[in-house]
C-alpha cells in the first residue's frame, strides 16, 4: 500500500509541550507570498496556509531523519503508561509521515515491501501520542497506547523470551514478558492471588495474608502512609522516604490486585487528568463527585495541565 | 575489537524465573561422554562440565537469533526500573555473546565495524539484568540499570527530540525526554518545585500549595490513603479504586519531590527487596530498623523473592 508522505497531514492535532530541535524554515515552500515565519502564519493565515505550513514542517522533519542505505530507520513502539516495549519495526519516509498524520503506529514491511499499520487486521492499533527521535536521528520511538495485545501471538508485547530463563533451564507455564520493576511486582502479587484458589497446608506468605484479610491490608496501607509522612515530619533521610514509599506502593498494589485494578489503569487515569485542565476535569467528574470537588481534591489537576 | 563469542561465559550468573523457549539440546557438544541432560549435568558435574554446558546453550541461543543479511539484529537498552528506552544499537553474534557473559550492554558499531561496550569511555555502563528476544527473534531488549546518563550528550536517554514539539513550534529550555506517564508527572511536579524559587504574585497552584505546606501535604496523603482503603471497605467500583490510587500516587510523589527522592530510587529499593530473600533483607536492614522488623513489615519481601 503505497501512500503519499503527506496524506492527511491536515488532520494533525497533537498537543504537548517542548522545544524545537529542528532547523526552522520560513515556510517559503508552503507560503511563498509571505515573508513572515511559521509562527506568524499560524497566527494570522487561513487554514489552508496553516496546513501548507505544517506540511512543510513535516517535510523538514522527514528530511532530518538519517535514513539508512535502504531508506529505513528503526521504530520502537512503547506503551505510554507502562513503558513496556510493545514491538519494533522499521519505517521509511512514508511510514513515518503516515504515523504523524494518522496517529496509528505504521511501519514498512521489508518482506512485503509495503507499509502496514499495526492493527489493520487485528484492530489492535497503537494510538501514537508523541514520536521521539534519538540523538543520531536514525531511531524513533512511537510513544502510544495500544488498543489490545500487540503481538500476533496474543501476547501483550512481542518480547516474551528471556535469555536468563533459557540459560537457567527454567520452565514455567505461559510466557514471561520483559517486565520492569513495578510490573514484575504486580505480576508476582497477581500470581500469589491466583495461588489462593488452590488450598495449601503451609503458613501463608505475607502477600497472601494481606489478600486474605482486607481489614488487615487496609490497616497496613494507613500505617505505611503514616510512616511515609513521618519521614518528612521527623526530617528523616531520603533513603528512609524511598523505603517507606516502597512499602506504600507494595501494600496499595495488593489492594489493587484484590479489586482487579491494574497499575496501568491508574496511570491511564493520571494521564487523562494530566492532559486536561482542572475545569474540564471538574466537569467530567460530574454531579456524582460534588463532595470531592468541594474539598478541593480535584484542584491539583488544574496545576498539572500543560495549558494552565 | 574482535572477541570470541564465548569469552568469559564461565562468569555467567543471571538469576530469574521463567520458561525455556529455545530448543533444549542434551549438551552433547559440551559433554559428549554423558547422555544425561543439562539439568543433570548442572546438578552433578564438575564446574568445567557445567561451563561447557552453558557454553553449548549460549551457542544454541545465538543460533536461534534471526540475524539479517549483515549478521545483525536490533538491540534496545531499557532501564529496568523506569522503563525508559535508553538507546538503540545493533548487535552481531559476538556482541550478544559478550553482553551475556559480561552483563554490560555491548553493541556492534556499523561505522567502525567493531564491538563496543556502552560506557567503555564514559564509564556509564548499562548493567544488564536480563535479555529478551521478540517473537520474530530479530529484535532484542537489554533490560538493565545504567550507571549514569546513557547519551553522549549527557542526557539520560538518547530520545529527547519530540515530533510534537517541532510541529507545534514549541520552545522550552533544555530537552524533553520521551517520558511515560509516571515520569511526566514527576517532571511536572519537579518543575513546579523549581518555580517556587521565583517569587510570583498569583495564587499558587495546588501542587505549589502542597510543596509550600508539608503539614497540609501530609494531611492529604493520609486522607487519600484512607479514601483508597474505603473503596474496598465500602465495596466501591474498581474505577473509583483507580482514581483514588491516582490521588495517593500524586500526593506521595509531591512528598518525594520535597525530599529530593526520585521514583526511580523507590523502584530501585523495591527491586532489591524483590530479588533477595526476606532473611537477607532483614539482615541488610541491620540494627537500625529493629522496630520495623518486629512489626513484621519486612516480611512481605520474603513472599516476593523468586526463590521462596
Relative strand content of chain A: 5-15%
Count of runs of 4 or more consecutive helical residues of chain A: 12
Largest interface: A-B, 130 and 130 residues
Tell me the distance between the termini of chain A: 42 Å
Radius of gyration of chain A: 24 Å
Oligomer: homodimer
Biggest sheet features of chain A: 4 strands, mixed
Question: Which residues of chain A form runs of ≥5 with pLDDT under 50?
Answer: 1-26, 28-44, 277-281, 287-298
Write the SSE topology.
The structure is a homodimer of 308-residue chains.
Chain A lengths: L37 H7 L2 H18 L8 E7 L5 E7 L1 H10 L3 E4 L4 E4 L8 E9 L4 E8 L12 E4 H6 L12 H15 L10 H7 L1 H20 L4 H21 L4 H12 L3 H8 L4 H5 L4 H6 L4
Parallel strand pairs in A: 1-6
Antiparallel strand pairs in A: 1-2, 3-4, 5-6
Description:
Chains A, B: Keywords: Amino-acid biosynthesis, ATP-binding, Histidine biosynthesis, Hydrolase, Multifunctional enzyme, Nucleotide-binding. Chains A, B: Residues 87-160 form the Phosphoribosyl-AMP cyclohydrolase domain. Chains A, B: InterPro entries: HisE, PRib-ATP_PPHydrolase-like, PRib_AMP_CycHydrolase_dom, PRib_AMP_CycHydrolase_sf. The structure is a homodimer of 308-residue chains. Chain A is 44% helix and 14% strand. By secondary structure, chain A is α+β, with helices and mostly antiparallel strands. In chain A, a hairpin with a 4-residue loop joins strand 3 (106-109) and strand 4. In chain A, helix 5 crosses helix 8 (238-258), helix 6 crosses helix 7 (214-233) and helix 7 (214-233) packs antiparallel against helix 8. The longest helix of chain A is centred in the last third of the chain and has 21 residues, at 238-258. Chain A is elongated, with a radius of gyration of 24 Å. The two termini of chain A are 42 Å apart. Mean pLDDT of chain A is 80; it is low at 1-26, 28-44, 277-281 and 287-298. Chains A and B meet through helix 1, helix 2, strand 1, strand 2 and strand 5 of A and helix 1, helix 2, strand 1, strand 2 and strand 5 of B.
Amino acid at each position: 500500500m503505497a501512500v503519499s508522505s503527506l496524506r492527511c497531514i491536515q488532520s494533525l492535532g497533537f498537543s504537548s509541550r517542548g522545544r524545537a530541535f529542528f532547523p526552522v524554515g520560513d515556510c517559503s515552500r508552503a507560503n511563498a507570498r509571505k515573508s513572515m515565519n511559521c509562527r506568524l502564519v499560524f497566527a494570522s493565515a487561513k487554514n489552508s496556509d496553516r496546513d501548507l505550513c505544517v506540511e512543510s514542517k513535516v517535510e523538514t522533519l522527514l528530511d532530518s531523519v538519517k535514513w539508512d542505505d535502504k531508506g529505513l530507520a528503526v521504530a520502537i513502539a512503547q506503551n505510554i503508561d507502562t513503558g513496556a516495549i510493545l514491538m519494533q519495526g522499521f519505517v521509511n519516509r512514508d511510514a513515518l509521515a503516515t504515523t504523524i498524520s494518522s496517529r496509528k503506529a505504521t511501519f514498512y514491511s521489508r518482506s512485503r515491501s509495503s507499509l502496514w499499520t499495526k492493527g489493520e487486521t487485528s484492530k489492535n492499533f497503537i494510538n501514537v501520542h508523541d514520536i521521539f527521535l534519538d540523538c543520531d536521528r536514525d531511531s524513533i520511538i512511537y510513544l502510544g497506547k495500544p488498543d489490545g495485545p500487540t503481538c500476533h501471538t496474543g501476547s501483550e508485547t512481542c518480547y516474551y523470551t528471556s535469555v536468563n530463563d533459557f540459560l537457567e533451564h527454567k520452565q514455567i507455564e505461559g510466557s514471561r514478558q520483559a517486565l520492569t520493576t513495578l510490573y514484575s511486582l504486580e505480576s508476582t502479587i497477581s500470581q500469589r492471588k491466583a495461588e489462593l484458589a488452590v488450598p495449601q497446608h503451609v503458613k501463608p506468605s505475607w502477600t497472601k495474608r494481606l489478600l486474605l484479610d482486607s481489614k488487615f491490608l487496609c490497616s497496613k496501607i494507613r500505617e505505611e502512609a503514616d510512616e511515609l509522612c513521618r519521614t518528612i515530619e521527623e526530617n528523616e533521610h531520603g533513603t528512609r522516604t524511598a523505603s517507606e514509599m516502597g512499602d506504600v506502593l507494595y501494600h496499595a498494589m495488593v489492594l489493587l490486585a484484590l479489586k482487579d485494578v491494574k497499575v496501568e489503569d491508574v496511570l491511564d487515569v493520571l494521564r487523562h487528568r494530566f492532559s486536561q485542565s482542572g475545569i474540564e476535569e471538574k466537569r467530567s467528574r460530574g454531579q456524582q463527585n460534588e463532595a470531592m470537588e468541594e474539598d478541593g481534591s480535584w484542584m491539583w489537576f488544574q496545576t498539572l495541565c500543560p495549558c494552565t
